[in-house]
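Note to self: keep these together.
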Amino acid sequence: MTVDIAQGNARGIASIYNSAVAAWAIAAAWEIGALDELHRARTLDTADFAARAGLDPQSTTGLFRALAAVGLVRRDDTVVHTLDGFDDMYRSKSFFHWLTRGSAELFRQMPAVLRTENRTGDYYRRDAAAIAYACREIDQVTYAPTFWAAMDRVDFPFTRVADLGCGSGARLMQILDRYPGTTGVGVDIARPSLDVARKEAAEAGFADRADFVHGDVLRLQPRPEYADIELITCFMMGHDFWPRENCVATLRRLREVFPAARRLLIGDATRTALPDTELPVFTLGFELGHDLMGTFLPTVEDWESVFEEGGWQVVRTNRIDMTVGEVVFELA
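Structure:
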């Protein structure tokens, strides 16, 4: 009995370790295109894929061995086949990328970040371009259906749109595509993300309809291109508005900077109250990561308490609650 318990404990510990390695492997497999190909074909010869993609064959097979170790695929030498859990993982791949590619340096430096004496100034690093890469799909998985339903409820004609915290510009370009008569501006603090946005907008034929401005959404100043914006969207960065007094000030500033705005759509994560042993994918990484960064995560109730003081009225609150208390607020 003691031997069985010890063996069980050893396997459990190995599972924790192997899962950590697999998380990195999932993100890498997605970024190099192997995960998408396996999802389509259901089987993949890793040696052949490595040869076509200019990758080291032994490392590529090892990457999929990590996925086999946690039961996502079955491996016959260099050939892998999907198993039952693969599709659920595939739908969540952007969460793994956010963690292991976008936030790797933050978690790597956790011992230093935990020390109070170090928590001043720019005391942590994340990869803004990798975060934007992951968040594009996170948005599609979590917010997109609710966002487009909110867009359909906009009860006035609009021709000018601003997307705050635009990242690589995906949302702005989607709006311009769906509403052909519109033009817009994306604002982001991360220059690498804006470089991607400008390149992709040009490739998609939106160069003459989309401008991208480098700026801190929390400290925006009036600009000529903001004066006639009628619709503002802001997704997956609203928690950066907080704490409360800062959030109220930012909401008021948006009224001043965008004087013609008639609707503001804010979509973001909120603090959850889930039991520690029942956390879905992403919740733990997102909440711990923001704790490490010193970022306050408001609850839905926290948000609803600041809108009127910030100069906005709630038209509708849309709770999604998929992984991290996602919500979309429609404000006027």
